[in-house]
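In the design runs reported in the main text, the only information available to the sequence generator was the tokenized backbone. The following block is the verbatim input for one such run; it is reproduced so that readers can re-run the procedure and compare outputs position by position.
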């Protein structure tokens, strides 16, 4: 009986390697999420900042420290201590507006991030709306004529100064807060995205060498 060598297996040319659909070998970004309608995005932003403006205006009127005029025979005067409280409403409006716009603007920007740069415009314009509504509500609730109250008061009475903004700078706090929140979130999400340029294709494994 003669010895015979087993037939040598013949390997065919392997077919091209195809990555499974679930793999992402070249680091391509995932498909973007579907965008919501423009009308819904704008409507929600307007409603959120409208409500925030109303609440912010009420809080501004309730918690602003107002200077007290001391009434005398010649009218009313501010003492040295009360002079330091003249700009109290400006500081209160700035603090309320910045905090509200930062929190709400950040939440809305994250929600609308698929719109790209347009999400910043939507949030910033909404913050401007909130600032105007807050000022209007506060003035409606707390701005009384000082002269009328001084004339009706008696010598020795204390009359609170009217609620008002002495400059328009505090009104910008809403815009700054919303823009800062958008910038922070955009920077964080940009750093967390995978670097597509540094990705390397996955080498095929398990294929026999070609002879």
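Verbatim output:
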């Amino acid at each position: 009986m003669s010895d015979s060598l087993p037939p040598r297996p013949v390997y065919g040319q392997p077919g091209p390697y195809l990555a499974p659909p679930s793999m992402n070998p070249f680091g391509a970004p995932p498909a973007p999420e579907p965008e919501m309608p423009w009308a819904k995005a704008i409507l929600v932003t307007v409603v959120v900042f409208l409500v925030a403006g109303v609440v912010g205006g009420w809080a501004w009127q309730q918690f602003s420290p107002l200077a007290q005029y001391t009434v005398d025979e010649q009218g009313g005067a501010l003492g040295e201590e009360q002079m330091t409280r003249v700009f109290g409403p400006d500081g209160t409006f700035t603090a309320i507006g910045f905090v509200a716009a930062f929190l709400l603007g950040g939440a809305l920007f994250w929600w609308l991030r698929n719109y790209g740069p347009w999400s910043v415009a939507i949030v910033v314009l909404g913050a401007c709306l909130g600032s105007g509504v807050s000022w209007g509500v506060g003035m409606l609730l707390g701005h009384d004529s000082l002269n009328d109250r001084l004339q009706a008061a008696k010598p020795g009475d204390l009359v609170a100064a009217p609620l008002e903004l002495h400059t328009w700078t505090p009104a910008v706090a809403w815009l700054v807060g919303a823009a800062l929140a958008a910038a922070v979130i955009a920077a964080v999400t940009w750093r967390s995205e995978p670097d597509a340029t540094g990705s390397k294709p996955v080498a095929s494994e398990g294929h026999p060498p070609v002879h």
